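Journal club prep — side note

Before the paper discussion, L.F. wants everyone to see what a predicted structure for a comparable chain looks like in token form. Sequence:
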Amino acid sequence: MRKARWAASAAGVVLLVAGCGSGGGTDKGKGGDAPSAGASAPAPGTGTAGGSSALDAAAVKREIEAAATSAGFAEKSGDDVPADLKSCMVSWNADGKKAADSRKSYDTTVAALAKGGWKETRTVDQPATVVKSPDKSGWSVKASHQGKAGALLIVSFMATETGPVCAKAFQEDLAKKKQ
């Protein structure tokens, strides 16, 4: 079960990195599409063109954790990121059951990330699911709130570095999982 869930997550990351979004989402502003695996993008930790500050996985995790915990979330243990992807990916799962209002905490977390310079590029908002994709310095976060209190509730923040080196690493990891 865990392996299947990780493979599904990895497939979603590859799609996110490749810029393939849901047809039901919206692109906000400019640059709504993530670069494809062959596109020119910053190498891990080098930031974006135009002098933006460089981010690495540890800095991204700190930003997500600070935003989420200040919004009332506690971290819930989840699947570990494979060692060969740790510089390209951050996974932070919220324990939505411990937040008084998980949707309000989710919205507050996304707003805090925006105040920290993360630019929202995509939103999918459906009755039981909302997914927002803010980007910053060569990183893209898939912030998702799925389900509702009293039932299955999943709140997660998965960040991926969008450069070609990490795109290749995600594709190689996915190929290994299919074997």
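L.F.'s comment for the group: Confidence is low (pLDDT under 50) at residues 1-53. Keep this in mind when we get to the figures.
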